[in-house]
Amino acid sequence: MRRFINLVLFFAAVSGHTLPACKPPSVRLNDGNMMPHFGFGTWLGFDENEVPVPVTDNSMGKGVEMAIDAGYRHIDTASIYNDEDQVGEALSKKIAEGVVKREDLFITTKLWNDAHARDAVLPALRESLRRLNLTYVDLYLIHYPIATKTVAFKPYVDIDYVESWRGMVDAKQLGLARSIGVCNFNVTQLQRLRASSDAEPAVLQIETNLNQQQPELREYCHNHNIAVIGYTPFGSLFPGRAKPDAPPPRVDDPQLAAIAGKYNKTVPQVVLRYLLELGVTPIPKSVHSSRISENLDIFDFQLDEFDRRQLRSYHNNYRTIPVTFFRDSPYYPFELP
Ligand code: NAP
Hints:
Order of helices and strands: HEEEHEHEHEHEHEHEHHEHH
Number of strands: 10
Strand order of the largest sheet: 3-4-5-6-7-8-9-10
Bound molecules: NADP nicotinamide-adenine-dinucleotide phosphate
């Protein structure tokens, strides 16, 4: 069946035709659970000084409602985003309206750095569940391998992420999280985590976009059956969000525009499709209904090898979110620029 679909997509792509939009497929995680291969992000982002944009209205709750109406079933939030309550309200509303059932949804949230002690994990998850108005999440992720004393970015406390992982395993065993995983770990940290426990991380969530294609981590995860979720999938594509020194391409890049034109798609759609074809699950965020629908409409075409090669050439290891304020932590996971 899979071969047939690929064949149809291939002929559609070479003939320049598109197929009717279809819903995202799911991927089977290494613990047997299914995860939709496309999701919706709910973080408002950093301002130009790397300070989180404050949550002042219900825009992300409205975004989640629009996303569910458009067909998204995988929603990504985190306790540090300060919007779990509005995400939860939107989920409850859509379930009450009969648009979706709880079991149709795949909801992720994340453990913040101030709750890394093993016995702090369950209370933090229970607080997230209360805000989300859920009895379980589908995926619980350690947000960073870094532990801090308070919710602020400093001071650090010396808690090994191996200890936090034991709390994550407790959460899975209690059924409060169906699957567990990590974000922002490097290969060495993943190896160490996996050696410390019989419980494999089901997912690694990492920045993945044209400038940061994560070849090493993707290969490691592929070899060890860990699914990769790609955050900040647009990277520095949009001028309003790109730092002044961020490398190209931007959304008006002529080569990107030519690829998009060839498939009768937009540049953001081509970028998301490319990530999907790399085996990554992208989780783009938007608060605009038209963009929410546009981003999801990528399941009726397939890029050819020529275009994939061009898109691959933009990789230069640049990070949109280097979190350099954590650079003096012994657990800082990234190469310093
Ligand atoms: P992103 O999804 O790559 O980009 C979001 C930006 O792109 C917003 O400014 C949005 O503006 C704009 N946008 C979206 N679709 C567009 C379109 N079709 N055309 C033009 N502009 C468009 O960045 P992100 O929010 O950083 O990453 C996605 C999600 O990943 C987050 O929301 C969060 O859930 C997760 N994340 C996780 C981590 C982690 O450490 N685990 C870190 C960062 C992010 P509008 O909203 O105004 O449309």
